[in-house]
């Protein structure tokens, strides 16, 4: 055993000892390690048990994380009613949980968190096939998503193929993050159900909701959302404009010049592949440079088959 691994083992042992003694922060740290898969092996079922223990001791953040994992089925089958019951308990003593509950109560959703009604779609283009759903999200829902993402935003990067270190993304110059399964609040889960409904797909096909912020000069250069050689391809994209009032930042499709200006709460849906599953070049699009203000956008990339966020190359719990 190297000195580094010995030090790591000692640190883990200290945390485990503290958890056994009832230290709620130590219990929470063990739960987080089990979710991330480092430095301990990922075990979602055990993570859920540790979260429940932390909640029983009184850890507020653990309560919200337990709600999220219960709803999206991490470590067990998805259970919206159970998640809602947990949120109601948390809301009695936590203002953040109470805000989440109030946001849910304002939504037109059924007993499983799925939308009862959707806005009438507007077809913007037939080739490529682009459909807009006006006012799909309320201003409060948009603010909720942006608020979760705000503290996690990072510059867009890719790995240098030679050095293996992060370098500036050559296509996307925004700041962004993803709302991973442990941060997928019940309002976000309900929104993801809504995005599945407008795209005619199952919620489980969607990647974690990505949130991008563009400031003046930032853009997303022309690109396709498909991934070369992916066995489980991105077949559809849903873009949700979280705000308006900025200058520039339109979404433009290169095949026909269709240009979509942002209206807060609007969503557009388009297909990325042809009937044979091959990338559809007509879906090439760009986020034009922002000239003034800040553009906030949520993106849900939808796969051909269910997608497991815990087995992605990089997991943001």
From TrEMBL:
Its EC number is 1.14.11.-. It holds the Pfam family 2OG-FeII_Oxy_3. The keyword Ribosomal protein does not apply. Residues 205-304 form the Fe2OG dioxygenase domain. Gene3D superfamilies: q2cbj1_9rhob like domain (2.60.120.620), Tetratricopeptide repeat domain (1.25.40.10). It is an enzyme of class 1 (oxidoreductase). The keyword Cytoplasm does not apply. InterPro entries: Oxoglu/Fe-dep_dioxygenase_dom (IPR005123), P4HA-like (IPR045054), Pro_4_hyd_alph (IPR006620), Pro_4_hyd_alph_FE2OG_OXY (IPR044862), TPR-like_helical_dom_sf (IPR011990). GO terms for molecular function: oxidoreductase activity. This is 2OG-Fe(II) oxygenase. It comes from Sphingomonas qilianensis.
């Amino acid at each position: 055993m190297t000195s580094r691994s010995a030090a790591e083992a000692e640190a883990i042992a200290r945390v485990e000892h503290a958890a056994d003694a009832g230290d709620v922060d130590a219990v929470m740290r063990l739960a987080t390690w089990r979710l991330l898969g480092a430095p301990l092996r990922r075990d979602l079922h055990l993570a859920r048990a540790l979260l429940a223990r932390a909640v029983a001791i009184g850890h507020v953040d653990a309560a919200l994380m337990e709600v999220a994992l219960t709803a999206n089925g991490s470590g067990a089958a998805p259970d919206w009613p159970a998640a809602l019951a947990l949120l109601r308990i948390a809301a009695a003593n936590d203002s953040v949980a109470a805000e989440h509950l109030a946001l849910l109560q304002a939504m037109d959703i059924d007993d499983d968190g799925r939308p009862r009604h959707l806005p009438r779609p507007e077809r913007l283009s037939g080739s490529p096939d682009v459909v807009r759903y006006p006012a799909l999200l309320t201003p409060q829902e948009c603010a909720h998503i942006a608020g979760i993402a705000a503290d996690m935003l990072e510059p867009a990067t890719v790995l240098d193929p030679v050095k293996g270190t992060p370098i500036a993304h050559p296509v996307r110059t925004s700041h962004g993050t993803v709302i991973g399964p442990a941060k997928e609040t019940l309002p976000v889960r309900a929104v993801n159900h809504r995005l599945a409904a407008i795209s005619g797909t199952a919620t489980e096909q969607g990647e974690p909701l990505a949130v991008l912020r563009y400031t003046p000069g930032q853009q997303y250069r022309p690109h396709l959302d498909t991934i070369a050689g992916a066995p489980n391809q991105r077949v559809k994209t849903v873009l949700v404009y979280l705000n308006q009032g900025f200058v520039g930042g339109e979404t433009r499709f290169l095949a026909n010049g269709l240009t979509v200006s942002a209206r807060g709460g609007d969503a557009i849906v388009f297909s990325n592949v042809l009937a044979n599953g091959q990338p559809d070049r007509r879906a090439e699009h760009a986020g034009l440079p922002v000239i003034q203000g800040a553009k906030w956008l949520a993106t849900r990339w939808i796969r051909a088959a269910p997608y497991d966020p815990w087995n992605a190359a990089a997991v943001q719990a």
